[in-house]
Amino acid sequence: MRVLVEGRNYVSQIARELQISRPLLQIHLRKLEQAGLVTSELELSEEGKSMKFYDVTPFAWQLTPNLIATAAATLTVAEREGEK
């Protein structure tokens, strides 16, 4: 989301800056939008081209012991090379 921190931007520009395909970016942006972390707005350019803009939704996390314990439970330890 770093490219969005500086302000709203449209899909094609974000994809260029991140050097990923627009379809892959749109998948990630949809998930972020479903989580409430970004918002989108469809606009028409002067040429009549449809442009979808995304912007970061202001949010704050309250870090609690319970949240840390929940997150820690999802962590995995990668196997060291050569060990099984």
Derived from helix and strand composition plus strand pairing, the structural class reads alpha+beta
Helix content: 25-40%
Calculate Rg over CA atoms.
Answer: 18 Å
The average pLDDT score comes to: 87
Strand content: 15-25%
Number of discrete helical segments: 4
Order of helices and strands: HEHHEEH
Q: How would you describe this structure in keywords?
A:
84 residues, 4 helices, 39% helix, alpha+beta
Q: In brief, what are we looking at here?
A:
The chain has 84 residues and is of the alpha+beta class. Helices cover 39% and strands 19% of the residues.
Describe this structure in words.
This protein has helices spanning 2-5, 11-18, 22-34, 65-72; strands at 9-10, 38-44, 50-56. It starts with a helix and ends in a 12-residue tail after the last helix. The chain has a three-stranded antiparallel β-sheet. It is built from four helices and three strands. The chain is elongated, with a radius of gyration of 18 Å. The model has no long low-confidence stretch (mean pLDDT 87). It has a domain at 2-58: Orthogonal Bundle (Arc Repressor Mutant, subunit A), CATH 1.10.10.10. With 84 residues, the chain is an alpha+beta fold.
